[in-house]
Please model this.
Amino acid sequence: MELSELVRFLHVLALALFVGGQLTLVIAIVPVLRGEPDEVMLAVARRFGIASAVAIAVVLGTGIAMASHFSRWEDETLQAKLAVLVLVAVLTGLHIATPRSRVVSLSLIVASPFVVWLGVVLTH
Ligand code: HEM
Model:
């Protein structure tokens, strides 16, 4: 395996954890845990929060490496992707501050897959 392949593999694995994790929470976990004591949901949220922080660190590091390796910093699609990623970061902060806000959590679940879309457009 070449180093650039390993970097892309880690980029895709980390984004799968971050974006896939959000979708799994909304589709399968939150609806089931709604009737449970708050501590249960908080425990799940805390673990996913730690996993997301690690995933974002990996996706940032590998993204910067690929953008430099492939000289893509001037690419408008990458710039659009980074702009949406800043929005995702702001929404994530708002979500941590107001975890019960449906508007914030739904905006996050719409914006995150859009970064994936821009990543695919960027690559192919
Ligand atoms: C949650 C955040 C992110 C998501 C969901 C994401 C998603 C993706 C996806 C799906 C691909 C295509 C992979 C492939 O088909 O091989 C990709 C490639 C790429 N991403 Fe990201 N990405 C994220 C963050 C970043 C960041 C922060 C940067 C740069 C600072 C970045 C730069 C790139 C580059 C340069 C490529 C490869 C382009 C090429 O092949 O020429 N990504 N990303």
Q: What stands out?
A: The radius of gyration is 16 Å. DSSP finds four helices and no strands in the chain.
